[in-house]
Amino acid sequence: DAKTTQPNSMESNEEEPVHLPCNHSTISGTDYIHWYRQLPSQGPEYVIHGLTSNVNNRMASLAIAEDRKSSTLILHRATLRDAAVYYCVSGNTPLVFGKGTRLSVIA
Amino acid sequence: NAGVTQTPKFQVLKTGQSMTLQCAQDMNHNSMYWYRQDPGMGLRLIYYSASEGTTDKGEVPNGYNVSRLNKREFSLRLESAAPSQTSVYFCASSERGYHDRVYGNTIYFGEGSWLTVV
C-alpha cells in the first residue's frame, strides 16, 4: 500500500477554515485517497474519499493535486466537535492507517 | 442502525488467560477487519477477511487467531494473553472485497474494545 505523510498536529480557531495536508508520493494510478477521523474514545469514521477530481460532501471537501501526489482535506468552518485525529489513507488492500494529524480547535 | 457491534467494550485479563472478542455487522458487508490501537499510535491491522471462510494475516498477527463464523460475524481470539496485548481493538467492515479498486473501499468501524492484560 502507498505510504502517506501527515503533520503530527495542527491547531485551528473555531469557525475558521482548516486545511489538513497529506503527501502520498508513491500512490498508484488506481489507488483512492481516503480520509477518516477519530473522535476521542471512538472508532474512526469515514469522512471523504476521491480518486482524481475534487470531492465535496456534507462533512468536508477533498482537494487532490493534479499529479495525485498530495491532497488536502478542507473543513470549511471548524467547530469544537471537529477536534479529532484525521487519517489520510491511500490504497485498497486493505487500508493501512498511519498516526494521522491531531487537530485541536480553539474556541 | 447498529452498524458494527463489538463485545465486550471493556475487559481486564490476567497474563495467560484466553478470551474472544466478538464482532458482528448488519450491513451485509463482504470484508471484515480487526485492528489494534496503542496509545499515541495509529491503527495496526491484525487480521482481515475478504469473505466468509477466508482470513489473512495483517501487520501484527502474532498471538491472535480469528474466525469468520459467517458473513456477519468475525471474532478475534487471544489464546494466552500477554501485557503487550493491552490495547484498544477495533473491528471494521467494508462492502466490497478489499481488492476492488474501481469504487474505493469505505470502512466502517465499531466503537472499540478496551483490553487490559495485567
Q: Name the structural class of chain A.
A: mainly beta
Identify low-pLDDT runs of chain A: none
* Alpha carbon gap, first and last residue of chain A: 38 Å
Structural class of chain B: mainly beta
Q: Which word captures the global form of chain A?
A: globular
Tell me which protein chains meet in the greatest interface and how many residues each side has.
A-B, 23 and 29 residues
Based on CA atoms alone, the radius of gyration of chain A comes out at 13 Å
Which percent band covers the strand fraction of chain B?
Answer: over 45%
Give helix and strand order of chain A, one letter per element, not per position. EEEEEEEEE
Give the averaged pLDDT of chain A, no decimals: 91
The largest beta-sheet of chain A arranges its strands as 1-9-8-3-4
Helix content of chain A: under 10%
| Helix content percent band of chain B | under 10%
Oligomer: heterodimer
The number of distinct β-strands of chain A equals 9
Mean pLDDT over all positions of chain B: 90
Q: Beta-strand level of the residues of chain A, as a percent range?
A: 35-45%
Structural summary, described in words:
The complex is a heterodimer of chains A (107) and B (118). Chain A is built from no helices and nine strands. Chain A has 107 residues and is mainly β. Chain A is globular. The N and C termini of chain A lie far apart (38 Å). The model of chain A has no long low-confidence stretch (mean pLDDT 91). Chain B has 118 residues and is mainly beta. Helix content of chain B is 0%, strand content 48%. In chain B, strands 2, 4, 5, 6, 9, 10 and 11 form a seven-stranded mixed beta sheet that branches. The radius of gyration of chain B is 14 Å and the shape is globular. The mean pLDDT of chain B is 90. At the A-B interface, strand 4 of A face strand 4, strand 5, strand 9 and strand 10 of B.
